[in-house]
Structures are given as structure tokens and as C-alpha cells.
Design brief:
Number of helices: 3
CATH superfamily: LytTr DNA-binding domain
Shape: globular
Strand content: 25-35%
CATH class: Mainly Beta
Distance between the termini: 29 Å
Order of helices and strands: HEEEEEHEEEEEH
Helix content: 10-25%
Number of strands: 10
Strand order of the largest sheet: 5-4-3-7-6
CATH topology: OB fold (Dihydrolipoamide Acetyltransferase, E2P)
Oligomer: single chain
Number of domains: 1
Length: 144
């Protein structure tokens, strides 16, 4: 694979373009690294504060006025509300229900459900429900 790097005239002109014949694990890793640079959220777990990288987040859920962030193996609490997190996170995140945001890069598969909803299976084998009002945007973002 050939890599080309050119100096940009300004910060606004900075961009990364990847041309690939097909999506591979290496390309997905490169995209993930590029998109996650600098993106971290303060979370706490067992009375310790961590800085969690955005690309580690699978989904975020609000329950009883508390916000929980789920990764592959752990659950953290954060002081931020969902609407605040939506502005902090990159385009890989999508509101999928009134009380939930999902990282679309962590979706393994989706399946249509009754009443126009969808079920999404994540890479860690958890299932989440995509509310009917968010299905259209999810399909557009996934290209289906």
C-alpha cells in the first residue's frame, strides 16, 4: 500500500483520504485511530476517575437521570447528559433512542423488528433496540 502525506496550508485544510479496494481490519484500525485522536471523556467507576477514549465506547444510556457509558467489558458513569455527549462525540455516534446513543462502528448486525424498530447486535454480543424514529438515519449511515 502506498502512503502519501502532504503538508496542509492551514488547519481547516487538514484531512485524511483513504482509497481502498475493500475494507480490511487494517484500514478500519487506521480509520479508528484517525477519528479517535483527542477524543476522551471523563468517567468514573468504583470511585476512580478515568479518561475513556471515544473509540472504546459501544453505547451510552441514560437511566434514572444518570448516564452510563458501556465499553466491551465495563460500565462507567459520567456526569454528562446525553445531549452534551452528542455534541462531544464524532460522527460515529448516533442517537438510537430517547435515552441511548450507539457507536455505529461497534454494530455487528442489524435486524428489522416489529413496529418499525430494529435490533442491533454489537461486537460484544449485546443487543440494543433502535427506536422507530431513528431507523431511517441508521440505515443511511450504514449504507443499507
Amino acid at each position: 500500500m502506498r502512503v502519501i502525506c502532504e503538508k496542509a496550508a492551514s488547519v481547516e485544510e487538514e484531512q485524511a483520504v483513504i482509497k481502498a479496494l475493500k475494507m480490511t481490519d487494517e484500514i478500519e484500525t487506521a480509520i479508528s485511530l484517525l477519528e479517535s485522536s483527542g477524543g476522551r471523556i471523563a468517567v468514573n467507576r468504583e470511585n476512580q476517575i478515568y479518561l475513556l477514549e471515544n473509540n472504546k465506547i459501544y453505547y451510552i444510556e441514560s437511566i434514572d437521570k444518570k448516564t452510563f457509558i458501556y465499553t466491551k467489558d465495563n460500565c462507567y458513569e459520567t456526569k454528562f447528559r446525553l445531549y452534551e455527549l452528542e455534541t462531544m462525540l464524532n460522527a460515529n455516534f448516533l442517537r438510537c433512542a430517547k435515552a441511548m446513543i450507539v457507536n455505529i462502528r461497534k454494530i455487528r448486525s442489524v435486524k428489522s423488528d416489529i413496529n418499525g424498530r430494529m435490533n442491533a447486535r454489537l461486537l460484544n454480543d449485546e443487543n440494543i433496540v433502535i427506536a422507530r424514529s431513528y431507523v431511517k438515519e441508521l440505515k443511511e449511515r450504514l449504507g443499507i
